[in-house]
Model the fold of this input.
Amino acid sequence: MLTRILSSALALILCVAFSGAVQAQSATDTASVTLPETLSPENVRDLVAGLSDEQVRGLLLERLDAVAQAQAAESADDSGGLGEIFYHVTTGAVGQILIAIKAIPNLFSLQALSISNFFSQFGFSGVLLFVGLCLTVIAAGFAAEWLVNRLTRGWHTLNEDDERPETLRATVAALFRRLCRDLLGVFVFFAVGRTVAFSIIPLEMLPFAQIILFNLVALPRIVIAFSRFLLAPKRANYRMVNADTQTAQFLNRHIIGFSFLFGFTIAILGFNELNQVPVADMRLGFWLNLSLHLYIVWIAWTARDGLIQMMRGPDKGVSEIEAKVSSAYPYFAIAVSLATWWLVLTLSSYGQIDLLRTAPHFKTMAVLLLAPALDTMVRGIVRNIMPPMLGEGVIARRAHHATELSYVRIGRVIVFGLVVLVIANFWGVTLASLAAGAVGARLAGNVVAFLITIAIGYLLWEVVSVVINRQLAKEMTASGEAPSEEQELGDGGGAGSSRLSTVLPLILLVSRITIVVLFTLLALSGLGVDTTPLLAGAGIAGLAIGFGAQKLVTDVVSGVFFLVDDAFRVGEYVDVGDVKGTIEKISVRSMQLRHHLGLVHTVPYGDIAKVTNFSRDWVITKLKFTVPFDTDPEKVRKMFKKIGQEVQAMDEFKDDMLQPFKSQGVYNFDDVGMVVRGKFMAKPGSQFMMRKEIYNRVKAAFDEAGIDFARREVRVNIPNLEDHDELTDEDKARITAAAAAEAETRDQDAAGKK
Done:
């Protein structure tokens, strides 16, 4: 409003100024004039009194330009808003349907007019001549194709009895050779036919012949070649998609039918346009386009069970999400077909008919319908390129499965990026055009740059995960460090993992955090967001955390030094002062210890003053045996030596027993017998199974040699009992009870001393 008032005032000023006397002006008189921020009637009169004609003219032009720019901006805001887009998507699209229905009477009359114009242009004899020449061109093309097929018959031809090659590469190679053979035939057909057409068909008839030759003959045959490559309808043993023969033949048959209908649509519209018929008034394209989309809907609905099975693929271990996506594919195809049809109506409502001349909507629809099939292909490729599993056991299987999922996700990201770029190219949208466009185009370019940055970051995330997880599986399983089902915990703990397997999970965590932070900043920068305040805020937040969470910093720094010193590893049995147990997990600030009774302790690194590791390098196990006093120690020594050699020679122990079991001689005497001791050295974690085996073998050897383990005995001395044979049963029972009571008392006393 203020702008309009100022422009009116300036117009009045101009009239007053031009009504005065005209005077010669100097160069300084034509200098630009700046309006004050506020204008009053007195200011206007004073300003006019001091201005020349040239100054008034320049000031007026400046203000008029500002008013025009403001009005243009307001018009752009009003015309390009969401309201207009919503109108064209809804009311405008429906209006196109109503226009097509109203144009039905013109449909037949204008089509008859097109045919009439064709006959009027060439005459009946000319039309007959045109038909004959077209048949000649087609015959010449097929003859050339037949000759080429004869010459290339040495190329691989798929037979029903052929066995499918063992590898995916060999299967694809065989199908690709057949595809090349088919496409070569179509190319020869089209090239020879086009050459003959230019030679024998009159120039005025040539556009009509080209329409027939390409759209009705060549184009469907190209589609047939690719359909045979993907579906192999008659060669189930070469079929790369997971579809039964009935489904493959059904899809192949109707894909060919769709291609003929599509080619006919382009041909008839081109025919009418060449005959000077107003296509917009005829609306034939609307009905043919609708028939194409309804055809796709019918195909997807009829073959929905086969499509679901095809999308699932042959994998038995399909995840729940993948199963749901596969089940939704037929309905996705129906939605894509209907959405594409509605997009055409919306663009028609905008008046962008020329944008559809190259059929980008059909190309887009084809790519979208093919995208889930590409996902199935990605999974199939991953199955064939997956490296073998490293190691054995649960950890190796888990790492192998994670690697496979990472490969699939990487393939999906690449396919998604290619799909986006291909669809954008169909509609004439490139990064260069976006960068060189207006503000809206630049915003779109920023969005594209954002998506590309996110995609690259995600790919890097998956690559790092694959590399580290495979190396982690190798470290934990290839060297036998994976925990055994029979491994015992406690009493010194089990074997620990390698140093690398302990550090790799932390490296993976830090790498992922770094990738997320870095690519988030890059993505925001790509959107045009200034990341400098974010970095400054992060620095301030880091300082605040450092001052407010000194204990956390202490824990983290202590953990780093413990890891640098290699003080402990995952799986090792350690004593950290107050608690002890097997290390199950380490993080940036703490470790988790599992006690042999099942308790889990979380210990921050900053609280650890000393670490006692029971599982590093080797462990010595000492075993005690009590034998009678009359046992020969030398005989026992030889037994222990023999047992140690036998146990060390066993397959399950030969790599883990560092020193064989051997005798240490007589260790002690007690009131029962003499105590002999033996020992062996083994790798941590393996001593428990060795101990069981040695106990069993010592028992068997003692039995064989007639050596009894010493047992605690209680002797009862009854005075004045010379003739014990005269004891009654009651007397014997009382004596036995007394002896048992005495033995129990001694055992309790011995336990109390311990």
